[in-house]
Design goal:
This protein is of the alpha+beta class. The protein has 9 helices and 11 strands. The relative contact order is 0.17.
Length: 237
């Protein structure tokens, strides 16, 4: 990790609100744009995400976007929303609710069903029908175990960590079409939360305001809202 990345990570608190930004810096898999004393832009190499902190030069935001894939999303904070919006005037903006979950005293007892860790070979079958999901899970697998719910010996729902700091991890869940609303994602999330809790890591759950299913599951699991972030994405053509 370069000295600049270390120093930047150290200036931000290890809290849910800053997990994406600090996790990006600590991952070593990113580059910086427009670095000043109070502002900078981070572009992740391993996931289509850009984080904007403060009010860096508009040119720095646009340069980071120009080097990214089409589906990249730009994350920022309340004080920077208008500034980022002026750089991405043809993008859509939506708030995301950040949740914390600190004390899971009985979560293991609530895990039911065929949930266990999935290995790489068990994920490969997704490549034909769900290539983007397979790509994301296989990219995460060297850094995070993949909790999966199995139906007829095939994994159909998943939970893994997409971002980590010294004390936090970010919950990521996906369920295949046809297997949703059956409680499979809940089982996977509980399994992964327990695992990370035993490692001394607290959970962070982020969900767009429009994603009522994710918000409802977070509440059911015991998460509580603590902050808001803002996500910019390209308008669908």
């Amino acid at each position: 990790m370069t000295a600049d990345l270390q120093k930047l990570a150290a200036t931000l608190p290890d809290k849910q609100l800053w997990l994406d930004t600090r996790g990006s810096l600590l991952s070593r898999s990113c580059e910086l744009f427009g670095l000043t004393k109070e502002s900078f832009v981070i572009r992740r190499f391993d996931t289509p995400l850009i984080c904007v902190i403060g009010k860096p030069a508009i040119s720095a935001i646009k340069e980071a976007v120009s080097k990214s894939v089409a589906e990249v999303e730009v994350l920022t904070y309340r004080e920077s929303v208008a500034h980022v919006g002026s750089a991405l005037s043809d993008w859509q903006e939506e708030a995301a609710i950040i949740h914390e979950f600190s004390n899971p005293p009985d979560i293991k007892e609530k895990i039911t069903g065929q949930v266990r860790w999935a290995n790489e070979n068990e994920l490969l079958w997704l490549e034909d029908e769900f290539p983007e999901l397979a790509k994301d899970l296989l990219a995460a697998s060297p850094f995070s175990p993949i909790a999966a719910f199995f139906v007829e010996n095939k994994p159909v729902s998943f939970c893994c960590s997409t971002c980590e700091s010294e004390s936090l991890w970010d919950v990521s869940i996906e369920t295949l079409p046809g297997y949703q609303r059956k409680g499979f994602a809940e089982c996977c999330a509980r399994f992964m939360i327990q695992h990370m809790f035993e490692k001394g890591k607290q959970s962070s759950w982020g969900a767009l305001k429009s994603n009522t299913a994710s918000l409802n599951l977070a509440k059911k699991l015991g998460f509580v809202p603590v902050a808001e972030l803002y996500l910019f994405s390209r308008l669908s053509s």
